[in-house]
Design brief:
Blueprint: H1 2-11, H2 14-54, H3 58-83, H4 88-108, H5 110-125, E1 133-137, E2 145-152, E3 156-162, E4 169-174, H6 177-180, E5 182-186
Antiparallel strand pairs: 1-2, 1-5, 2-3, 3-4
Helix pairs in contact: 2-3
Length: 194
């Protein structure tokens, strides 16, 4: 194919040869995109047919299509970039660099992200509310941290351990702690004057 293009390139006037260098890769990229679209259309049709024939869960077929879409469109993107002259080594270097930075950032922010996620779970599942008295215990009957919940924010849950909000002792516990330990919640009369 390259010999045909080279012969065509050599036989054309100079001003059209420059356009040919742009036109051919553009057509190749369009054909790669069309091919990827057709493969995904076939995959959707096949998945729909298999789902109805064998009564497969819809969520499973959606997950399958997402994975296939990632592979097909990712491969088509890499193939298109290669046809436009981007080196595979450059792409791999860029990918590994971004992945490394992303992994470092993820691990650096892991505790904050886990506290945010646990705050979301606290707001959704409502294991306790502001005003409830809770105790976070290490295990069994061993005494733990106890107090009245006065605030729940995205990172911490604040417990008033003793006194009142103006002259007492409060504790800020990370939200993840409520999912890593046993939480005792009092209903009705609270022991120890809380």
């Amino acid at each position: 194919m390259n010999k045909i293009l080279q012969t065509l390139h050599d036989s054309l006037p100079v001003w059209t040869a420059d356009w040919l260098d742009i036109f051919v890769p553009a057509v190749e990229v369009l054909l790669i995109g069309l091919f990827a679209w057709l493969v995904m259309r076939f995959a959707r049709h096949l998945t729909r047919r298999l789902t109805t024939t064998y009564a497969l869960p819809v969520k499973l077929s959606e997950l399958f299509l997402r994975v296939i879409g990632f592979v097909v469109y990712g491969g088509a993107s890499l193939w298109a970039l290669e046809r436009m002259g981007v080196s595979g080594a450059v792409l791999w270097t860029a990918f590994t660099g971004f992945a490394t930075v992303g992994a470092v950032a993820f691990f650096a922010a892991w505790s904050v992200l886990s506290n945010l996620f646990c705050a979301l779970l606290i707001f959704i599942t409502r294991p306790f509310r502001v005003g409830d008295v809770v105790e976070v215990v290490e295990g069994g009957e061993k005494e733990g941290v106890k107090g009245r919940v006065v605030d729940i924010n995205l990172v911490y849950t604040t417990l008033l351990e003793s006194g009142d909000e103006h002259g007492g002792v409060s504790l800020q516990l990370p939200n993840t702690l409520f999912f890593q330990r046993i939480v005792r919640r009092w209903h009705g009369t609270v022991p120890d004057g809380h």
